[in-house]
Amino acid sequence: MVETMDQIFVTLKHWLVGFAPGQCQPLFSAVLSVAAIILAFATLFAVTTLLERKGLGRIQNRYGPNRVGPCGILQPLADGVKALTKEDVIPDTADKVVHFIAPLVLVMPVLLALAVVPVGRNMAALDTDAGVLFFFAVGAATELSVFMAGWSSRNKYSLLGALRAIAQMISYEVPLILSAVTVIMAAGSLSAVRIVEAQSGYWGVIPNWYVLTPWGLAGFILFMVAATAESNRSPFDLPEGESELIAGYYTEYSGFKFALFFLGEYLGLFAVSGLGITLFLGGWHAPLPGLDWVPSWLWFFAKLLVIIAAFIWVRGTLPRLRMDQLMGLAWKFMLPMALVNIFVAGLWRFLPGGVGRWSVCSILVVGAYLLLGRLLAGRKQPGKRVYRYAE
After folding, report:
1. Nearest to 214 by CA among 335, 310, 330, 347
2. Helices (H) and strands (E) in the chain, counts
3. Are residues 278 and 197 part of one domain?
4. What is the pLDDT of residue 389?
């Protein structure tokens, strides 16, 4: 019974593929995998938007959506209908072809990146030996879509928003990738499936997850901070600074194309969160022994919902950073911290096990954090100008 529930979707897929002719079965299998990814994460997108609006309303002491359906649960459906029926306005001077393609270029690479994330046992749509490399390679296409949106609009605010977004995404992509290198070193593989398998087993009741090591905890924090910036989430939502740039690179978008940008950002958030779960949190493995009767895919999505709840909490709590603070954090703190963390991960591999290894690696990680934090916070602040008004 446990095995049946765990592999119910895999069994269903094999049963459906059996109805296709022999030469068409590989194609039909790929179509089913793509359809499952779109259906699962589109549903999660609808649920997340509702939970985020409800959660932010609770944090800000106001009502969230409560008009459409019982307790407002049909609000995502109403938003989708509104986006489909809203007028699509295109500026007269815009490059209409590029303006149309940009949202699609944002959504499609994210769906490809989700294909290599194992959401359960035997539930990776694309199991390749270079899965993590494939994830980062296709994810780099989002910078192209952002530039296409800002440049094709022929709007200076859209272009400025696109340039700020690209600068931010490139800056935080470096520590994002470097923080993942430590896990690749420990697992000895670029395959997402192999990395999850390397985290199986327990030390007594403690799971064998990379996040429970000094370098793994530091890498996980760096990864999630960089993922927040990559997803344009608060407090790193500088490309969408409404008080400065209207709505950033998609100022001139409306209707369903604007909804595609909205969908693409959330799917990117799900993808990078899923990769963080795969790299540091054991993937679909249970957090405690004896809980293997719970389906593996349910554990994955439970971890994903916890991370999404943390993103919502951060958005409702922290104010937006300045642009200089944003870039300084990436290049002056996170990049050197990620490099130190790679060194610590290598040291962890070659030091003999025991308290000594834990002590040395913990001291190095904490020391690097305190030193870099002090250097970042202690830099000379520009003097304040005093303006006197004429009497």
Report:
1. 347
2. 16, 2
3. yes
4. 47
